[in-house]
């Protein structure tokens, strides 16, 4: 891991390398275990201004249907109107509205997360994980980010009570983002 900020020579426009990136999530199931999942289809771009991070920006678009928790029945339920209502809301988007350098390799990225027709501001804690030149001569840059959201804030309200108390699906969901991006 890097302990420095993004170097000035890394300024520029980047696209996500989806083969080497991951958009994941974690939610508690039945109050006792965590279910991990990810989205397999997405695209994104970054504009990096290393000298003035506040002029940087990013955008992400996720194909809702590409949700994958490793269980087809659960994935189909998540695609249904009970959760993402995929036929009516085929995409989840995030667009940055402000970026601030926190310290060292850490940044705060504020942006609008739109799920199921509802857009709300969220703040991602982002860590710059480094850069490299790959064997093809491409400049790559990496970031990790996480944020915990309440799914009900986006209208993802379905749940089922448990006999012993509690509910089947937690309201809190942690979004996990690992990005490798290639300079254009």
TrEMBL record:
Residues 13-182 form the Lipid/polyisoprenoid-binding YceI-like domain. It holds the Pfam family YceI. It comes from the Bacteria. InterPro entries: Lipid/polyisoprenoid-bd_YceI (IPR007372), TTHA0802/YceI-like_sf (IPR036761). Belongs to the UPF0312 family. This is Polyisoprenoid-binding protein. It comes from Arthrobacter livingstonensis.
